[in-house]
């Protein structure tokens, strides 16, 4: 626990003493602002539905850039050797890093609170739906951060880790877009694999255990793969 | 304190170290020397639990490195070849992070960080950013990190590489001060440093142990002691003098060595009395008869060969 917390703190410190966190918050909030405006202008609804869908797609590209350094850089600079020769399990290291990126996501989501305030000022948003939308988006962040970490654990090259993370996550999106090409029977099956349909339930105000399990399974799966990669690095 | 038995590490078809065995008693400093790429860093990485061995066994501080890696890691302070620093943190932030990572009791953390900073000469450097430090200071921070949890075993991979002579002396004094309380493995290329600090030496070459034991044993094993003989024989050809010395039963090899002769004998045989009485018998003067023990450097070169030098 101490070690996980130490790593979480250290990662957050690194985010905020470098331009990294500020650039991410800035870029993300700009994108979210554009989607928020477009969503309102196109539908005329006082909701975050359009914004949430588009934001989740942009996170697919943004978050691997955030997580790419987590293991790649440590392996390049040699600090990984110190971590692995400390009396700390790889799980503690991994979870600390994942929580750090998730904390930054939380700040990013908090930043979009401004849009909610605007909605509340000019319209009458459904607070329940807004709450479940944020829950869905946060769970999505959990999946993307875990996937990005997995990509980062595979290489000591940050750019490769970032690109690899994007490529790893894209099928979760593409499988939904491509599903209409394969006929109805398969479309339904593929839609279960795609991320957006699961997120859509949350943005409609529905919390379904099937969707919760989908996100939990993907997150846990990616974290588990990362753990195995870290373990195996010692054996190669 | 450290027992290494038949350690072998292969990366695919490449054998990094093969059948390496040695032991270090408690409180001793072991000098770990060898050319670049000989397998020093690999061996140290195996001992710190960073790399598993392909074969063999290593026991550090009473725990098997492969069966109880966490217990071993608690008791080992490790300074890798490149100090493992987060460039964007300050010295204080970094050392406090390391203290948490090593799970020092909360109440002791700040005190220990202060103590090790004092010990390695970093007092007043707490707020400096690691990325802006010179090589010497980075090395000090690396050492501070290794000492933080006051480990009984220290594994230092080239702690003095890249330091200036004054810093070198500082680190050497620090290590000398740590010996006794700590069992230390020190890898280095600076052989006089090993001679000054280490009672025991392991010389590794191409992944295998080429020589090991006490400093004297390694020196003697590498290159036998020889004698420098300087005779004054007016009107006699130097070659004739050499022949006369070489004719003695106690002498094995004679080579000219500047003005003098370099004389080797069988181990345990001292040819000096015979040379002296021969010289006196012929009416030659004796300028000098000295026994020379090869330096560690000579030993190193005679074992490793001069291809890299």
Q: What is the tally of helical segments of chain B?
A: 11
The run of helices and strands of chain B is: EEEHEEHEHHHEHEHEEHEHEEHEH
Rg from Cα of chain A? 19 Å
- Structural class given helices, strands, pairing of chain A? mainly alpha
Global outline of chain B: elongated
Biggest interface: A-B, 27 and 31 residues
Would you count the extended β strands of chain B for me? 14
Largest sheet of chain B: 6 strands, mixed
What oligomeric state best describes the polypeptide chains here? heterodimer
Calculate the mean pLDDT score of chain B and round it.
Answer: 87
β content of chain A, as a range?
under 5%
Shape of chain A: globular
**Which architecture name of the largest domain in chain B does CATH use?**
3-Layer(aba) Sandwich
Number of strands of chain A: 0
Number of domains of chain A: 1
Strand content of chain B: 25-35%
CATH fold-level assignment of the largest domain in chain B:
Rossmann fold
Domain count of chain B: the total is: 2
Order of helices and strands of chain A: HHHHHHHHHHHH
Helix % of chain A is over 70%
């Amino acid at each position: 626990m101490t070690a996980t917390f130490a790593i979480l703190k250290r990662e957050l410190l690194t985010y905020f003493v470098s331009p990294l966190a500020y650039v991410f918050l800035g870029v993300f909030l700009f994108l979210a602002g554009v989607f928020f405006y477009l969503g309102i202008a196109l539908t005329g609804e006082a909701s975050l539905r359009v914004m949430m869908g588009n934001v989740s797609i942009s996170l697919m590209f943004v978050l691997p850039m955030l997580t790419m350094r987590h293991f790649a850089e440590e392996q390049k600079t040699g600090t990984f050797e110190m971590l692995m020769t400390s009396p700390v399990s790889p799980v503690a290291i991994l979870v600390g890093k994942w929580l750090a990126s998730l904390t930054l996501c939380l700040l990013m989501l908090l930043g979009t609170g401004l849009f909610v305030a605007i909605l509340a000022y000019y319209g009458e948003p459904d607070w329940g739906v807004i709450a479940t939308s944020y829950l869905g988006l946060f769970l999505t962040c959990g999946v993307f951060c875990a996937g990005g970490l997995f990509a980062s654990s595979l290489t000591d090259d940050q750019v490769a880790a970032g690109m690899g993370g994007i490529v790893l996550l894209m099928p979760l999106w593409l499988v939904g877009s491509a599903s209409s090409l394969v006929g109805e029977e398969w479309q339904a099956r593929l839609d279960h694999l795609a991320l957006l349909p699961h997120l859509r339930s949350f943005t409609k105000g529905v919390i379904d255990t099937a969707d919760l399990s989908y996100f939990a399974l993907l997150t846990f799966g990616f974290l588990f793969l990362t753990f195995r990669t870290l373990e195996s690095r010692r054996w190669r | 304190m450290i027992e290494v038995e038949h350690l072998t590490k292969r990366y695919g078809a490449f054998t990094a170290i093969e059948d390496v065995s040695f032991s270090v008693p408690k409180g001793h400093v072991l000098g770990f020397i060898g050319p670049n790429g000989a397998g020093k860093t690999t061996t140290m990485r195996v001992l710190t639990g960073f790399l598993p061995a392909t074969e063999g066994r290593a026991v550090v501080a009473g725990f098997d490195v492969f069966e109880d890696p966490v217990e071993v890691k608690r008791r080992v302070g490790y300074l890798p070849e490149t100090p493992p620093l987060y460039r964007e943190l300050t010295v204080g932030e970094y050392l406090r992070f390391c203290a948490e990572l090593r799970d020092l009791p909360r109440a002791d953390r700040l005190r220990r960080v202060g103590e090790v900073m004092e010990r390695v000469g970093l007092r007043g450097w707490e707020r400096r950013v690691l990325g802006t430090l010179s090589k010497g200071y980075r090395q000090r921070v690396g050492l501070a990190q290794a000492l933080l949890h006051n480990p009984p075993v220290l594994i230092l991979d080239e702690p003095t590489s890249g330091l200036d002579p004054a810093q070198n002396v500082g680190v050497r004094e620090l290590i000398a001060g740590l010996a006794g309380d700590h069992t230390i493995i020190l890898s280095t290329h600076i052989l006089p440093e090993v001679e000054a600090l280490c009672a025991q030496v392991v010389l590794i070459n191409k992944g295998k142990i080429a020589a090991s034991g006490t400093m004297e044993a390694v020196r003697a094993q590498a290159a036998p002691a020889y004698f420098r003989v300087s005779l004054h024989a007016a009107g006699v050809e130097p070659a004739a003098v050499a022949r006369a010395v070489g004719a003695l039963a106690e002498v094995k090899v004679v080579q000219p060595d500047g003005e003098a002769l370099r004389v080797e004998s069988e181990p345990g045989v001292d040819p000096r009395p015979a040379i002296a009485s021969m010289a006196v018998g012929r009416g030659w003067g004796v300028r000098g008869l000295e026994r020379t023990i090869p330096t560690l450097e000579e030993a190193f070169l005679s074992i490793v060969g001069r291809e890299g030098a």
